[in-house]
Amino acid sequence: MPTLPCPTCQKPVEWSPAAKWRPFCSERCRLIDLGAWMSEQRSIPGEGAPDSDEAAGGGSDEGNADEAQLRRH
Ligand SMILES: [Zn+2]
User: Could you tell me if residue 34 is inside a domain?
Assistant: First the structure.
Protein backbone atom coordinates (compact mmCIF):
# COMPACT_ATOMS: atom_id res chain seq x y z
CA MET A 1 0.00 0.00 0.00
CA PRO A 2 1.55 3.36 -0.98
CA THR A 3 1.79 6.03 1.67
CA LEU A 4 2.09 9.81 1.54
CA PRO A 5 3.15 12.14 4.36
CA CYS A 6 0.29 13.97 6.07
CA PRO A 7 0.58 17.66 5.04
CA THR A 8 0.06 18.72 8.64
CA CYS A 9 2.08 16.31 10.78
CA GLN A 10 4.14 14.43 8.13
CA LYS A 11 2.92 11.09 9.44
CA PRO A 12 2.67 8.48 6.66
CA VAL A 13 -0.89 8.11 5.44
CA GLU A 14 -2.04 5.02 3.56
CA TRP A 15 -3.34 6.08 0.18
CA SER A 16 -6.39 3.83 0.14
CA PRO A 17 -10.16 4.30 -0.08
CA ALA A 18 -10.24 3.39 3.60
CA ALA A 19 -8.17 6.48 4.43
CA LYS A 20 -11.11 8.73 5.08
CA TRP A 21 -9.15 11.93 5.69
CA ARG A 22 -6.49 11.61 3.00
CA PRO A 23 -4.29 13.31 2.18
CA PHE A 24 -4.42 13.98 5.92
CA CYS A 25 -3.98 11.29 8.57
CA SER A 26 -7.03 12.39 10.53
CA GLU A 27 -9.87 14.87 10.71
CA ARG A 28 -7.84 16.80 13.26
CA CYS A 29 -4.97 17.36 10.82
CA ARG A 30 -7.43 18.28 8.09
CA LEU A 31 -9.04 20.92 10.31
CA ILE A 32 -5.64 22.22 11.40
CA ASP A 33 -4.65 22.69 7.77
CA LEU A 34 -7.98 24.30 6.96
CA GLY A 35 -7.64 26.62 9.95
CA ALA A 36 -4.13 27.63 8.92
CA TRP A 37 -5.36 28.38 5.44
CA MET A 38 -8.25 30.46 6.72
CA SER A 39 -6.11 32.43 9.18
CA GLU A 40 -3.74 33.23 6.32
CA GLN A 41 -6.66 34.50 4.29
CA ARG A 42 -8.00 36.68 7.07
CA SER A 43 -4.73 37.74 8.69
CA ILE A 44 -6.59 39.95 11.14
CA PRO A 45 -5.17 39.27 14.60
CA GLY A 46 -7.58 39.15 17.51
CA GLU A 47 -10.77 39.16 15.47
CA GLY A 48 -13.32 36.40 15.91
CA ALA A 49 -11.40 35.03 18.88
CA PRO A 50 -13.18 32.98 21.54
CA ASP A 51 -12.61 35.96 23.85
CA SER A 52 -15.62 37.75 22.34
CA ASP A 53 -17.78 34.92 23.68
CA GLU A 54 -17.01 35.82 27.26
CA ALA A 55 -16.98 39.58 26.73
CA ALA A 56 -20.22 39.93 24.77
CA GLY A 57 -21.68 36.98 26.63
CA GLY A 58 -24.91 35.10 26.02
CA GLY A 59 -26.66 37.61 28.28
CA SER A 60 -26.80 40.44 25.77
CA ASP A 61 -27.84 38.05 23.02
CA GLU A 62 -30.74 36.71 25.05
CA GLY A 63 -31.77 40.21 26.02
CA ASN A 64 -31.92 41.25 22.39
CA ALA A 65 -33.98 38.20 21.51
CA ASP A 66 -36.47 38.94 24.26
CA GLU A 67 -36.78 42.56 23.16
CA ALA A 68 -37.38 41.51 19.57
CA GLN A 69 -40.11 39.11 20.65
CA LEU A 70 -41.82 41.73 22.78
CA ARG A 71 -41.80 44.19 19.90
CA ARG A 72 -43.33 41.61 17.58
CA HIS A 73 -46.26 40.91 19.86
ZN1 LIG B 1 -1.55 14.29 10.37
Answer: yes
19 CA from centroid of ligand 1 (Å): 12
pLDDT for residue 56: 55
Q: What proportions of the chain, in percent to the nearest 5, are helix, strand and coil?
A: 50, 10, 40
**H or E stretch including 4?**
strand 3-5
CA distance 16 to 5: 13
pTM metric for this prediction: 0.49
Please list the rounded mean pLDDT of every run of 10 residues in the chain (73 residues): 92 90 93 86 62 57 63 67
Q: Which residues surround ligand 1, an ion (CB under 5 A)?
A: 6, 8-9, 11, 25, 29
Asked, for residue 43, whether it belongs to a domain, the answer is: no
